[in-house]
Amino acid sequence: xxxxxxxxxxxxxxxxxxxxxxxxxxxxxxxxxxxxxxxxxxxxxxxxxxxxxxxxxxxxxxxxxxxxxxxxxxxxxxxxxxxxxxxxxxxxxxxxxxxxxxxxxxxxxxxxxxxxxxxxxxxxxxxxxxxxxxxxxxxxxxxxxxxxxxxxxxxxxxxxxxxxxxxxxxxxxxxxxxxxxxxxxxxxxxxxxxxxxxxxxxxxxxxxxxxxxxxxxxxxxxxxxxxxxxxxxxxxxxxxxxxxxxxxxxxxxxxxxxxxxxxxxxxxxxxxxxxxxxxxxxxxxxxxxxxxxxxxxxxxxxxxxxxxxxxxxxxxxxxxxxxxxxxxxxxxxxxxxxxxxxxxxxxxxxxxxxxxxxxxxxxxx
Length: 365
Ligand code: NAD
Ligand code: UD1
Hints:
This protein is an alpha/beta fold. Helices cover 38% and strands 15% of the residues. It is built from 11 helices and 14 strands. Uridine-diphosphate-N-acetylglucosamine is lined by residues 91, 93, 131, 133, 156-157, 186, 205-207, 210, 222-225, 236, 238, 296, 319, 321-322.
């Protein structure tokens, strides 16, 4: 298949491009490079021996997106795109509370302009990067897809919730569309080559990049945000998932949409509603997680073991908006996609460390 990947130079996008190429698909990448480096895709090309045409463009630029999508069409003598994998977006939770309009503009308005461009090119299949943040503070764990979405604690989370709703409404209105909503838990780690990985700008917000930078000597100590949660050791529990497993989940979701003929076959002209809930059948939702939760202290211990380095820690107050525990019930993806995470915490930390050690300053180093 031929895919347009937005956010292709980013952390998850670059790993997904690699897995798509390895699975035999063809990819064109788009990114505005606001939070990533062009170098990531060069490395993907080197690792796979395959070319990835890249267009530096903003998803809010409808004309530019339509041009890319139409240039992939038969009128151009090329093969038409089969789908868009949509990773582009801003993702810093704290920043989103300071600049809510910029987040809604970039994420929500950007997605609307992309959808418009897709419609104009007749490309009506999308795999969307959502987040477990849409569940808000869940009543219980593990979290299945049937858990009602909650109230995210920040504009970033709301932008994901809004986009999900837009995509559900679109799928319900037009049976030709097929959309997969993939709710990620906590993506960590890097490709086993150590050539591509997560390269946050400035001070990392997320746990594993922060630990990695402490290990490599860029930061002094990790602040543990609260050790008085109702969890076994008092620190927050999360479902960390290896980014390569996550990327493979996208390939499976794409294949599901195509092979199950989702959005293509309904003769009645109505989008079928899934039994028992409001989600149209041409807009499936899958959690991408391992189903296992680990605490901050367990994550630190696993990183220390993988790196052979001591990570100094200090206990700090809870971070506003954090919840005690969040982990997936990954059964649906296993049953429907035949997908499950293969890498455990040790492999996640080993690969995060290999990437950090080989690229102490990230791509620009
Ligand atoms: P990332 O910042 O590394 O990648 C996002 C990419 O999108 C960047 O390369 C950035 O330059 C690009 N981008 C942003 N706005 C754009 C725009 N208007 N036009 C074109 N390109 C634009 O982040 P990531 O971790 O790879 O996340 C990918 C997607 O997954 C995001 O939508 C994010 O919200 C979602 N997600 C990430 C996590 C996580 O923990 N990393 C968890 C849940 C969901
Ligand atoms: C965060 C976002 C969430 C987003 C996800 C993936 C918040 C409130 N939530 O989730 O919306 O979808 O990233 O990008 O930011 N921790 C520390 N010290 C640190 C960093 C983190 O103790 O320096 C702890 C946190 O309190 C948490 C765990 O580590 O218990 C994981 O944190 P993090 O990696 O930031 O992910 P989430 O908070 O789960």
